[in-house]
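Lecture 7, part B: from sequences to assemblies.

Below are the input chains for today's worked example.
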Amino acid sequence: MHHKECMSDTQLVELREALRQALDEEMARDERVFIMGEEVGQYQGAYKVTKGMLEKWGSKRVIDTPIAELGFAGLCVGAAMTGLRPVVEFMSFNFSFVAADQILSNAIKMYYMSGNRFPVPIVFRGPNGAAAQVSSQHSHCVEAMYSHFPGLIVIAPSNAYDAKGLLKSAIRNNNPVLFLESELSYGKKMEIPTAEYLVPIGKAKVIEQGTDITIVTHGQMVAVCIEAVKELRRLGIKAELIDLRTIKPLDIATIVASVRKTHGCVIVEEGHIFAGISSEVAFQIQEHCFDDLDGPLARVCQRETPMPYSRELESKTVPNVARIVQTVRYCVKPL
Amino acid sequence: MNKPVKSDKPTFFPYDIQQVIKKVDPARLIEALRQMLRIRNFETRAESAYQMGKVGGFFHSYIGQEAIQTAVVEVFGPNNWYTTSYRCHALALLLGATPDELMAELYGRKTGNAKGRGGSMHFFTERLLGGFGIVSGQVPIATGAAFSLKYLGKQTEVSLCFLGDGAVAQGSFHESLNLAALWDLPCVYIIENNMWGMGTHVEQAVSVSRLAEDKASSYGMKGYTFDGMDFFACYAGFSHVFKEMEINRKPVLIEVVTERFRGHSISDPGLYRSKESLKSCMQRDPILLMEKVLLDNGLLDEEAIKQMDKQERDVMIAAMKYAEESPWPDPLTLEEDVFAP
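Predicted structure of the full complex, as structure tokens:
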């Protein structure tokens, strides 16, 4: 082995492995933490996030469920109220809809409604948004819907480093957390520290510096925006790119600081355009930066249709590099 | 459409009043009657406060069903997890919440049981996980509490879940019972069949007649039916379940047949129920039935009962005064505690 490798303090991991390390470390740290969901054990996880964990931790703490999201999500809310710290894996957040009553009526209201008696330390995690041609019922972006309600923390990491650090923070938090991953990013590799670290909840990150315009996005769209920023560079436009990382609570301070510098903003969101995260971000920008803006805000979102199956149609409804570049150019140099 | 073929009417689990009287300390029986009178007086006074415009929102009375939860808490003791529907006033009282804090909660005051945030449907104690507003919403929660007990190795506690007959038709009821039976979770599911899911009779809502006995077998669970109007029937039945659970720690499904004397909520005049049918069920008032047994067995006299009832009435009148004089929640605290620290 090379000396350099011995001394290395980083490791190259896929995003799914970063998530697994977070779960593993937190389960070692606190025996009240367990993971429950469909196919998390014997099958090794539908997307292999929990691969090897049943063997390591046993069936007491890595718990396979029947196909009953309402039942097991609600059961875990009850477990969280009575002394445990569950991590619920939804095979896909599309399936969280049948469990929505337990998330929205029970988990996120309980601490307030009970006059501070029962905190609900629980993480709901799994893939969110479009994958590859999985059509209308398996491609929902749920963040706008759930973020509407007070009492819920909503996190959407875009890379392995953030995924690990934020999931650890989520598990240690005493509130319900929705942790939104992307099927398309599970296999993405990144160098991350081998030593333990946390990423704080509620902090956005400027991942590309620029002076001409700000682009705000989150989750899977970060990768698309990175490509768009490169393309814009070639066209002579220096865009600043912000990855929200946490959607709620929204780190508006980081966005405002950027917009005050660039005087313009385009918000990119994988979810639908009506009443989306982008609407909220845009509104808060105009509240704080009205006098700093050189022109109207703009957004690039999923169009107002159910997700079509055909690759040709799918690529037209989800934001892509061309649409983002076109929108930014329109904002920077109005016709 | 053909009507579904109904199963037979349930037969009540056998019991002997004299055996219960022989077994239980008379002071405990008198205390149980006092609890039932306490619940009845609380509901009656709270209703009057509602009519006076002091209480808002939904309000679901437990009048007519007092024997059930009183017997359950007497048999199992307070040191367990408890969960119930929005008809939650009685259980909070039985688990130690004071009439003052509950009345103040109904009045929406700072001193209320949930700081004026929950109201009539959301009462809590250290071991009462709620008052839940969505029909059957509490059933997965109670199942989770049983999961915690098993996970943490707490062998002496169980999770007790009250639900109405209306909850039996919900999906979360089915999913919870399947999980509880699959994983041997120590949960007692108690269906208080008061015959009506709002204005819909149970026969128009559930395809079988024996809510517990017919459903339980499909989950591989035991099912029992008790007479919910008779404290002694409940006491004997739940004592049997208590002993069984001490040994096997498996979930069990119980139907307790009762009938509420009031509408579904305070705004419901109950037009779907005939006067005769209401009158006939009120003849089996659980408080009158229990008083009669205690009188017949010489454990109490009429005067003592009257005294007890008056004491409880006075407690509730004092609670109304306490609530009335309590401060409103400070609007500055409105946005506190949305998140736990």
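Note for the exam: Chain B has one domain: 20-260+272-322. Keep this in mind when comparing with the next example.
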